[in-house]
Write a structure and sequence with these properties.
It is built from 62 helices and six strands. With 1279 residues, the chain is an all-alpha fold. The strands form three sheets. The protein has a two-stranded antiparallel sheet. It has a two-stranded antiparallel ribbon with strand order 3-4. The relative contact order is 0.06. The N terminus is likely disordered.
């Protein structure tokens, strides 16, 4: 055996020769081992050798084995260990490399080695306390070749120590198997790194092999096979647990404290625990933007966070999710007086999105079970993995949900579907399941009154359809309340459409009408329609498209995800089609485009996360049809002609709703715009990047493999990356469009093609501006047709594609607006001409809206006087609107100065805005309220809101004159403008949100608190209810969710929320103290007595306040604001905060302590909401941001930096925050730099948080394993 190089006195060969001679002599004389060891120690000390000596261990083992081996040698080695002249760990490593391989030849030596190992192997404290600890570990690494075995480059002592212990165990296991001739049964013979679950599986399998077959083990009196099996089960559970997030937020608090936030509920706690779900669902429903990200993914991540933080069971988590979705439906069910009711979107959220969230959670659990089964011991592995516990938890949650009858009443328009679901269960239980097909075609009058279904029945049916439940749910107590003989046995007069289709019937007009009106109930039915849409004749394809756009899309909740995926696939063919092929499919494509363009349908696509995939298909359609000249029209089956411009406009206006086309993409970056979790992306490039990522990453994980089984095998999308360069015409238009809205256009160059198009448009639409081209003028002057048809004829004559028309429109608008400003064109003629242009090419609305927005921002136009002569007058309603805005805000707790403009006020709007509003007023609501007005209305509202007061009230007043039934909605929309330039109003609204939710303040209108007080119960804007002041009240949370999108720079929101949160903590303690009954109050021990405050109640409400704070920051600004909050706001607050105090020292300490815990929850939850708690593509950014915050905490603890906050606040914050990370998001820790973790653990030890410091290192991965082992050993030795 090689002896390492010696240093200092140890380099003298004569010293070691003398040591070995002394040893030989002692062996010959059979000297007392104690005497030998004492004399040897004195000899080494006199030569300045540091004890225990690494070199001595090498020399003794080399000397004893095997030339001088004997019983005396083992006695000498034992005394050398006991007198600390050799390191026991190194000696055992040397012996393991020498004795174990020779155990067959030297069985006595092997037995004595085992005795020595039993006595010294786990005396680890002496190892790490040795003066030459690092040198000992380096030597062990060299002896056992650990760096090679574990493929490691560094040599951290703690890691070597762990590897040493495991290597000894592994060696003994293989030796035991080999001794009983069992080693050949094991497929792996090399040690592996057991931090990896798959390698732990190898170890466990070998242990199970030993347990099952070892005769020695069965006859042993020291340990039984059963005990060893039990040990292996614990190891297997422990390793499995390491790969999962802890489900209990058992927060370790400051030294001496016993507070734990999880596991107790008081009053509305059960409701408020899931408040973030209510918020994200409400935001997803009401957001004006179209989200590029799946609501399923976002809500699933949110559920995981809340499940971990609340320490709840999954059935409670699922119950909270269902109740939040039901509350969403109830808030919307009775809405009236709104432009577009959102009930279809609400029902999609409840019965499709939420059901898919549950399915994803179940799929993830079962994919983990599959992975565990693959690496589990052979004798416990099952051929088919058992179903996860979450399925049973789902059953429990749905059974409990049946008790919430007040939430289960369906909206009237969906009563038929609810009754059909209840009747289906009745028929099934009667044994006549074949008759269930009848129900789809019954009218509501056909069903008995006792067969009263509700939303519970629809939810259960949605779960059964996705194989989350089976039909045993029909037998739940109280699920059905009628007899089967009450259900009519004969079919209704309608044709049983879907059954006929599945039997092969042709798509006759009558059958198509039935299938359009009746949603499909199974994937097979939708697949049949998809097959026809891809392989049928053109007429059959058009019929199939019509069916897909019917009830199956908006009411087919059990198959909705399949329907929209098939529709997206039809618009995004796998093989890029040729131009001629797309053109031949114009009618078919147009049916799909119109069918999905309603607000509810686009929102449904958005919620399912299919907008990026749909966008790529729409870009290709726009590319082709926008390049076609309008000289040919196709005749639709209805007899109407279909032009290329119409197909282009339908695709183009749908596509442009997917991002804020009226705002330059660079503007979002410049003004630090909010990036909410369900907000739109800034540009089409981003949509394509998201699309490419989704398709490239889909199906890689085990969870994706399970989820993929839920979808049709017939569906596929092209996985090749798609970039803007793939669509040169569209890309060219987009670049010109961006230039148009950020800079002044250059003048027209005579002779260019666009110049001729501009002349034609001006001559046809605005004849008074200038003279027209002779030939064109003559062709139009004698015609009695409308300007729209004349323009059509002129464009056909020019043979101009839509892209060229769009290029010319900004110049036309500039000339027309200039002419109007100089009196050469009347305002009426301007509005009429704009409407004719929009009717001719609806795609021009995009350019019109963007142009007017850009011109308002430039601010170079004189105002337009809204006096009834030049422009429409708002005088009839303006004063009333301003009063109602003030009263409406007052119902939310926001008090603003008088909004009425005093004096001789002349209502004005910027000229471009006046023209824009006049254009929107020309639309007839009974015909054009659909896709085109929906496209430009949000732009008009945002533009008016960005202008000085009272521009938005003026716009609202004009629209109230047009549609009086929308007055409440329009007043509500106008009220949001107040917050655009009034930060004090924003702060008041945020305070009102906290007070209403937590039930704080005697002046609060909603002092009972809870989700209902925060978001309302369904009474407010759009609901037929009025206050004594004559306005419809609005809940503060509802208004708050609408306000953030009007705030350019949202960074100050996080700062204000921190301040409000800390004030809320103070109010909670004060409120609890004042409201408590003196006879029921009792002292609560928390290290020392902290007054008569109910600590349990206070801590629960503090957690709810932090939940609300984190939710508002995340929803209002997304990851961007959360990042700023953690990196900037929180450190600054600790350095500048003033101490919050109440009367009395104990109360002040309580406020400070609870404030620290509130901040801990606030920061942790904000990060968890933004980046999730699992490994994902966001892990890198999350690790960077959280690493900086960990570093900040560590630097304060280790460098003793002075902070301005109360010491109790800081201590509570640190212990609470780290405890939450360890308990709820342990995966985050492995993303933090190792040195930061080690520094933070040292700081925690200074706070006397030894156990918390150890848990932090335990979760740090391989990099902190050594430090964790050393700390655990030191901790065990200390106590």
């Amino acid at each position: 055996m090689a002896v390492p190089a010696q240093t200092n006195a140890a380099d003298q060969p004569s010293l070691w020769d003398a040591v070995l001679r002394h040893t030989d002599l002692a062996q010959e004389r059979n000297s007392d081992p104690n005497l030998w060891a004492t004399e040897l120690a004195a000899m080494l000390r006199s030569s300045s050798v540091i004890l225990p000596s690494v070199e001595l261990a090498h020399h003794l083992v080399s000397h004893f084995f095997w030339k001088n081996h004997g019983p005396t040698a083992w006695k000498f080695l034992e005394r050398a260990i006991s007198l600390n002249i050799v390191p026991p760990s190194l000696l055992l490593a040397l012996l393991s490399a020498t004795v174990v391989p020779s155990r067959q030849v030297h069985p006595v030596a092997y037995r004595l080695y085992m005795e020595l190992l039993k006595r010294n192997a786990f005396m680890l404290a002496s190892h790490i306390n040795s003066p030459n600890y690092e040198k000992i570990m380096t030597s062990i690494d060299e002896v056992l070749l650990l760096s090679q075995v574990y493929n490691r480059k560094d040599c951290e002592p703690g890691i070597v120590l762990v590897e040493f212990v495991f290597s000894i165990v592994w060696q003994l296991l293989e030796a035991s198997l080999d001794d009983e001739e069992l080693l050949d049964h094991a497929s792996e013979n090399n040690a592996r790194w057991l931090r990896r679950p798959s390698y732990w599986g190898i170890f466990i399998r070998k242990m199970e092999l030993l347990v099952s077959n070892s005769s020695v083990l069965r006859s042993s009196t020291h340990i039984t096979p059963e005990a060893l099996s039990h040990l292996m089960e614990h190891i297997h559970e422990g390793i499995s647990h390491e790969t999962k997030t802890t489900s209990k937020a058992n927060v370790f608090m400051a030294s001496g404290s016993q507070i734990c936030f999880a596991g107790q509920s008081f009053g509305d706690s059960c409701s408020l625990q899931w408040l973030p779900i209510d918020l994200i669902l409400e935001d997803a429903l009401g957001g004006a933007n179209i989200s590029a990200f799946s609501a399923v993914r976002i809500v699933t991540g949110l559920m995981k966070v809340l499940h971990a933080v609340n320490g709840s069971t999954w059935h409670n988590a699922f119950l909270g999710l269902w109740i939040a979705a039901l509350r969403l439906v109830q808030r919307e069910r009775d809405s009236i007086g709104v432009p577009v009711p959102r009930l279809h979107t609400c029902m999609c959220m409840l019965l499709s999105i939420i059901t898919l969230v549950v399915a994803h959670i179940i799929d993830e659990e079962e994919s983990e079970l599959i992975e565990e089964a693959e690496c589990s011991p052979v004798n416990i592995r099952k051929e088919k993995p058992a179903l996860g516990k979450c399925r049973g938890e789902l059953v429990t949650s749905l059974q409990l949900l049946g008790d919430y009858q007040f939430l289960l009443t369906p909206p009237h328009s969906f009563l038929l579907e609810a009754n059909q679901a209840a009747a289906k269960a009745i028929i099934f239980l009667s044994g006549n399941s074949d008759d269930c097909e009848i129900l789809k075609y019954m009218r509501i009058d056909d069903l008995p009154t006792k067969c009263s279904g509700n939303l519970w029945h629809l939810i259960v049916e949605a779960c059964i359809a996705r194989n989350l439940l089976d039909t045993s749910a029909y037998s739940w107590p109280g699920y059905v309340n009628a007899c089967s003989n009450q259900i009519p046995c004969s079919k209704s007069n309608q044709v049983a459409g879907w059954s006929l289709l599945m039997k092969g019937s042709q798509l006759t007009p009558e059958l198509v009408d039935v299938l359009v009106a009746t949603p499909a109930s199974s994937l097979a039915e939708i697949e049949k329609i998809y097959y026809i849409a891809t392989n049928g004749s053109l007429e059959e394809k058009i019929s199939a498209a019509t069916i897909l756009c019917g009830a199956s899309l908006v009411r087919g909740w059990n198959v909705q995800e399949h329907t929209i995926i098939f529709m997206t696939s039809l618009l995004s063919p796998l093989v890029p089609p040729t131009e001629s092929h797309l053109i031949s499919q114009a009618q078919f494509l147009n049916v799909l485009l119109i069918g999905i363009s309603s607000l509810d349908c686009v929102h449904i696509f958005s919620l399912h996360g299919l907008v990026p995939l749909l966008a790529a298909g729409l870009m290709r359609i726009c590319e082709v049809f926008g390049s076609c000249v309008p000289d040919v029209s196709q005749t639709h089956s209805t007899g109407n002609e279909l032009s290329f411009h119409e197909v282009f406009s339908n695709a183009f206006t749908l596509l442009l709703r997917f991002w804020r086309f009226d705002v330059p993409s660079i503007e979002h970056v410049r003004r630090n715009s909010a990036t909410p979790p369900l907000g739109s992306l800034f540009c089409p490039d981003s949509l394509l990047l998201v699309r490419n990522f989704l398709l490239a990453s889909w199906g890689r994980s085990a969870k994706d493999q399970i989820t993929r089984k839920r979808f049709s095998k017939n569906i596929s999308f092209p996985t090749e990356p798609v970039l803007m360069d793939s669509f040169p015409k569209f890309n060219s238009w987009y670049q010109q469009h961006q230039e148009c809205i950020v800079s002044i256009r250059s003048g027209l160059v005579p002779g260019e093609p666009v110049h001729q198009i501009v002349d034609v448009l001006l001559c046809t639409l605005f004849r008074k501006i200038n003279s027209c081209d002779e030939s064109l003028a003559s062709s139009n002057s004698g015609s009695s047709s409308s300007p729209g048809s004349a323009l059509n004829d002129a464009m056909v004559k020019l043979k101009v594609p839509a892209w060229d028309v769009l290029e010319a429109i900004p110049f036309v608008l500039d000339a027309a607006l200039t002419a109007c400003a100089h009196g050469r064109l009347s305002t009426r003629q301007l509005a009429t001409g704009l409407k004719d242009l929009a009717d001719f090419l609806p795609a021009s609305l995009v350019t019109i809206a963007s142009y007017f927005s850009a011109e308002v921002r430039r601010g170079i136009w004189e105002p337009g006087f809204m006096n009834g002569t030049d422009w429409p007058s708002p005088a009839a309603n303006l004063s009333l609107v301003e009063q109602q805005i003030k009263k409406l805000l007052a119902t939310t707790g926001v008090d603003v100065p008088s909004l009425a403009v005093e004096g001789n006020f002349q209502a004005t709007l910027p000229l471009p805005l006046a023209a824009f509003v006049s254009l929107t007023l020309t639309y007839k609501l009974d015909k054009d309220i659909g896709r085109f007005l929906i496209l430009i209305a949000p732009v008009m509202v945002d533009l008016a809101s960005s202008c000085p007061w009272p521009c938005m009230p003026i716009v609202a007043s004009l629209w109230i004159q047009k549609v009086k039934r929308w007055s409440d909605f329009l007043v509500f929309s106008a009220s949001k403008t107040v917050f655009n330039c009034n930060r004090d109003a924003v702060v008041q609204l945020l305070r009102s949100c906290f007070k209403s939710t937590l039930g704080l303040g005697s002046a609060c209108l909603h002092n009972n608190g809870g989700v209902g007080a925060f978001l309302g119960h369904g009474h407010g804007v759009g609901v037929n209810s009025k206050t004594s002041e004559g306005v419809s009240p609005i809940a503060p949370g509802t208004l708050c969710l609408k306000v953030y999108q009007y705030i350019g720079d949202t960074r100050y929101i996080s700062e204000e929320i921190v301040s409000i949160l800390m004030q809320s903590v103070r109010d909670i303690v004060s409120n609890q103290f004042l409201k408590g009954d003196a006879k029921k109050q009792k002292k609560v021990k928390y290290g020392t007595t902290h007054g008569l405050v109910s600590l349990a109640r206070s801590r629960e409400r503090v957690k709810h306040a932090a939940l609300l704070a984190a939710s508002l920051v995340w929803i209002s600004g997304g990851t961007k604001l959360v990042k700023y909050f953690i990196k900037e706001t929180m450190p600054n607050w600790f350095f500048s905060a003033s101490m919050l105090e109440l009367d009395g020292e104990e109360s002040s300490t309580m406020v400070a302590m609870l404030g620290g815990y509130a901040l801990a929850y606030f920061v942790m939850l904000s990060g968890a909401f933004a980046w999730g708690i699992d490994h994902s593509i966001l892990s890198k950014e999350r690790g960077k941001v959280m690493g900086l915050h960990f570093e900040f905490i560590a630097s304060v603890l280790t460098k003793k930096i002075t902070l301005s906050c109360h010491d109790a606040t800081w201590r509570a914050y640190v212990s609470g925050f780290v405890s939450l990370i360890v308990s709820c998001t342990p995966l985050w820790i492995s993303e933090i730099d190792v040195d930061i973790l080690k520094s933070l653990s040292k700081g925690l030890i200074r706070l006397n948080e030894h156990e918390l410091a150890l848990k932090l290192l335990e979760n740090g991965g391989i990099g902190t394993m050594g430090a964790a082992a050393e700390m655990a050993i030191a901790f065990q030795h200390r106590f």
